[in-house]
What does this fold into?
Amino acid sequence: MEEAPLFSFGVIADIQYADAEDGYDFWGCRRRYYRHSLRLLRAAVEAWAAERPPPAFVLQLGDTIDGVNARRGAAEGALERVLAALRRLPAPVHHAWGNHELYNFSRDRLARSGLNSRPPAAAGPAGDCQAYQFSPAPRFRFVVLDAYDLSVLGRDAAAPRYREALRLLKEKNPNENLNSPAGLKEPQFVEFNGGFSQAQLDWFNEVLKFSDENQEKVVVMGHLPIHPDSSDRVCLAWNYEDALSVIHAHQCVVCFLAGHLHDGGYCLDSHGVHHLTLEGVIETPPESNAFGTIYVYDDKMILKGRGRISDRVMYY
It folds into this structure.
């Protein structure tokens, strides 16, 4: 008899919906299917709802709507369409914030939106950091990191946190266009990325210390990849090495899930942590899709992917 999973959860990334004709990426060479992305999300929701049992929750890895909405004055309507599709799920959704959310809304506005999945009483880092953690089953913990806690996106230009982030960005990136990685020794220091504050890293370290002591397995999610072998060199968190150092100081983390890089990526790092970067819905042709369900067992997680996302077994 086939072993039953302890629980399962859905994963999806970079929907980037807009009610707009197809367009192209930042570099002008990759097609983006703006309207079709909502249809693909609805298909994913239908598939998850039909599973028996359905997933316990879904991880939405950021960039729900595209930045083109901000230029068209369409951000509120676009977000409501995406949230309406997700509300058809018989399970909660945990949201990471990506750069495209922050092109459309301030952090304050996002905190008052349906993209704020952090429980009101959740203990987390000080300030407006959106990091939090939850335990869906005994001996398992999930951590949602805020990869734009340190960022110039979504903050008022007069705010100290904005000035701190801008100073760091300009120290690392002398280009006139701060979205250009041209010539950089650390090409992740571009405006469309962000990083983790020291306060968030300290909080993260304490969560993992607790999980070590209680022999828990931990899955971490955030919009930005934190391992160079699961990404290209540009689409990484600014201080990805700091986040990796925290993870590698503990035994409990089994997997890090990210989006942002629409081609996806995967590696098993030197400490036995799986780094899975999901392919983006936005660059998925209408006849395909890009989502999956991860089935959790005592000794492994099995990803059943749809469309562009490949099946994968991740042992721990």
In short: The mean pLDDT is 97. Residues 34-50 form the longest helix (17 residues).
